[in-house]
Design a protein that fits this description.
The protein has 52 residues and is mainly α. The chain is 63% helix and 0% strand. The radius of gyration is 18 Å and the shape is rod-shaped.
């Protein structure tokens, strides 16, 4: 019984953590989710014009 409660808490905790990270990244916009954001020098202006 205790093991299944702990496993359930672990699953829901991980789901909550993943959801939190997703929401945090989505607030950063296009460059926040880009895999090249560390080495990109375009400052995202080209990408923002395409998405509008």
């Amino acid at each position: 019984m205790i093991a299944s409660i702990l496993i359930g808490l672990l699953i829901f905790g991980y789901a909550g953590f993943t959801l939190y990270k997703f929401i945090k990244k989505s607030k950063e916009g296009v460059c926040g989710t880009c895999s090249l954001k560390k080495s990109c020098n375009s400052k995202c202006s080209a990408f923002q014009d395409e998405t509008r």
